[in-house]
Amino acid sequence: MSTKALEGIKVLDFTHVQAGPACTQLLGQMGAEVLKCEMPGSGDSTRNWLQDVEGADSLYFTMFNGNKRSLCLNARTAEGKDILTRLIKQSDVMVENFAPGALDRMGFSWENIQKLNPGIILASVKGYAEGHANESYKVYENVAQCTGGATSTTGFWDGPPTVSGAALGDSNSGMHLCIGILAALEYRHRTGRGQKVAVAMQDAVLNLCRVKLRDQQRLERTGRLDEYPQGELKLPIGDSTPRGGNAGGGGQPGWILKCKGWETDGNAYVYFTVQASAWGKICDMIKKPEWKDDPNYNTFEARRDKFFQVIKTIEAFSVTMDKHEFTKWAAEYDIPCGPVNSFKELAYDPSLRKVKTIVEVDHPVRGKYLTIGSPIKFSESDVEVTRAPLLGEHSEEVLKSLGYSADEIKNMIANGTTATAKA
Ligand SMILES: CC(C)(COP(=O)(O)OP(=O)(O)OC[C@H]1O[C@@H](n2cnc3c(N)ncnc32)[C@H](O)[C@@H]1OP(=O)(O)O)[C@@H](O)C(=O)NCCC(=O)NCCS
Question: Is the pLDDT at 62 greater than 90, yes or no?
């Protein structure tokens, strides 16, 4: 019996850069057979981005393209179009994130793809949704963070708009696409019908900024946003959701606190949540039992103009402790708090290795590298994390399985339709 959730699902991966590859990699980790199709010679442009080992595929490529096979396929030649046609006919899902209209220009519009395989699911990422005024524009990660509202609401009120270190535009769009594909597979399971699934990067970012649209509406209705620092600091709140620095955002106020060593270590900090329901425990923790029943402190409203005073009082404790020690201490009081982890810490964290969220894989050219395993854990299904393929590593075996003879393959290599590589 198969132990992988998506065993037997064939994914034709026509993706590049990050949004599409992140989606297909996750499908692969969950057991789908993913075939990455790339231009002979160059391949996915990220193979060469920020290379750290001469002659080896970059970490950008290898960390987003594990659990895949690689076929070199130039869909501009007649033979290339024939290969693509055969692949479409036998695939369950086709994923692409080329520029708007690129697939149509190749001759593979959604209408044509459907004719070839009515059960197929075509999944696409674009910068903007179909029908949007900017639908023809190309978009990269940080552009989407800006267009989706994340950037205008990130950073400090007296600083510029700031992009996040998390790939809210790219990987997040890929994760949304993955959810859409799984829903479409379930729909096909019931009806036998395929469909097109589209995710716009702007929409995927906006979907993560839901509370900021909530705040816009609250601001317009009431003229105030009490959990933002602007009120206490007597700063103008403006007429659109402002940047709140490190304020809570969701609903529970919080802030970043200095910990021991902050003067020299830029990550010696914790995030501390002043959860309303935990106020009594916070008072016990910071040795201020008198604040528990003091009407000047014991409600969120009463603390509204004293938030930074409260934070400073807590910080007097955190600054004497290591961030992990302080986190443990807060957990003893059941208070949500966590260390600001550096990537040096994350890369070597024994717990993350144990739960297989950080995984080491071996690559024939670059050697061992770290990648991020599936953040989704299953009680029954296995999740396997394998290395990224070399460009064209599986071209020959795939073309043979599609019915091409050795001579035909040789000709296609000679005329630039495909190329091969050996591991
Ligand atoms: C990411 C992006 C900005 C990159 O743009 P780009 O480097 O100029 O690449 P394109 O997607 O335009 O592809 C270039 C061309 O190569 C073609 N191409 C790529 N691989 C091919 C293949 N194997 N066979 C034939 N043609 C291929 C594309 O069809 C396209 O053709 P066109 O000239 O008719 O448009 C753009 O693809 C985009 O906006 N994608 C949608 C949003 C997105 O996913 N962005 C985030 C990526 S992380």
Answer: yes
| 202 touches 194 (CB < 8 A) | no
CA proximity to 148, closest of 166, 237, 195, 225? 166
This prediction's pTM: 0.97
DSSP bridge pairs for 125: 199
Half-sphere exposure of 400 (CA within 13 A, CB side): 6
Provide CB contacts within 8 A for 66, sequence distance 6+.
25, 28, 29, 361, 371, 385, 386, 387, 388
44 is catalytic: no
Q: How many CA atoms lie within 13 A of 156 on its CB side?
A: 5
Tokens 């395929």 identify what position? Answer: 194
The pLDDT tens digits for 84-129 are 999 999 999 999 999 999 999 999 999 999 999 999 999 999 999 9
Both tokens of residue 373? Answer: 């395993």
CB 14 within 8 A of CB 94: yes
Q: Which residue has the tokens 């998390």?
A: 166
Give the Cα separation of 294 and 280 in Å (integer).
Answer: 11
The pair phi, psi for residue 316, each rounded to 5°, is -60, -30
Query: 252 pLDDT band (50/70/90 cuts)?
Result: confident
Which of 24, 48, 97, 98 has the most ligand 1 atoms within 8 A of CB, as the residue to mutate?
98
The Cα 163–Cα 205 span in angstroms is: 12
Residue 80, helix vs strand vs coil? helix
Please identify which of the residues 92, 170, 203, 215 carries the catalytic annotation: 170
Query: 327 in ligand 1 pocket by Cβ < 6 Å?
Result: no
